[in-house]
Amino acid sequence: MKNIATIIVCLLVILATSTAHAIRIKDIASFAGVRDNQLIGYGLVVGLNGSGDSDQAKIQTQSVVNMLERMGITTSANDIKLKNVAAVMVTANLPPFAKQGNRLDVLVSSLGDAKSIAGGTLLMAPLKGADNQVYAVAQGSILTNSFAFGGQGATAQKNHPTAGRVPNGALIERELPNTLAGKTVLNLNLSVADFTTASRIVTAVNDKFKSAVAVSRDPGSVTLTIPEAYANNAVEFVAALERLEVKPDVQAKVVLNERTGTIVLGDNVRISTVAITHGSLTLVIKETPLVSQPAPLSKTGETKVVPRTDLKVAEENRRLMVLQEGVSIGDVVRALNLLGVTPRDLISILQAVKAAGALQAELSII
Length: 366
Hints:
The protein is 21% helix and 35% strand. By secondary structure, it is of the alpha+beta class.
């Protein structure tokens, strides 16, 4: 267990040290309006091997009747019984600048009580956006990478058979407006709002273009004025800007997960002078009852159970460790590791240090 704790702690130190390097602006920020848009639609999956919706789910029966009527076939919901059809919801993400004719992956999820949609075919399903406009149409064979079979006495199932994907199953029919066309001012939104990071981005951009191109009015965004040299070529301006490297500033934070024993410590975590010792008391109680009975062929006496208890108490001897004020995360980890603590012990220690007011970082328990 001590070796596992040492490996975890070393990895944390390596990860914390790696955050000191500069990062491209495109990895820590995005332009306002340049984002994915969610699409949703309703459809039918056919060709199932008796694993579709039951008669209790009326929605798929009515949908089939409506579809047949649009094809010129008149029928009634009372005249048909379906076992190979399932009603499904179809979802997809429409990326920015996607063009008409491009294809998207779609996710298909059962809406009724179908046992499995594996091997089925999704019929043409219009996908709408939040404005109720159709942006894509999905159709194709469903891949679930699962199965579900069974009888009255036993069943066998692998993965999740009532949800699957149709790779490249949606065809884009409507394009989103170009958010860069005709723009003279762009807004850059930071993934994590921070005053220092926003200030560093402004400095890097202005140094790159040799003018006051960028200005920040809040820690979450940077306003960019497109220079005259890029007036008719916003794409080149954005490409040059995204390649700039900035060292983001992060808040000192410690994240603890007591369920899994996971500990993540940021690079800026500091600790005041504090003395730490950590030990545990182990108490083992073992009951071994003994049976006392009379001798063979004896006319007197009776059988009795004599209780017997073994009690062992073991207390670990741990040294008192003093951590000096302002030590780095590496020093903290090495000092606590000398105490021989496990990840779960380290969680308790960090909580106690925070309660003592010696941990100069936000403590987040998930």
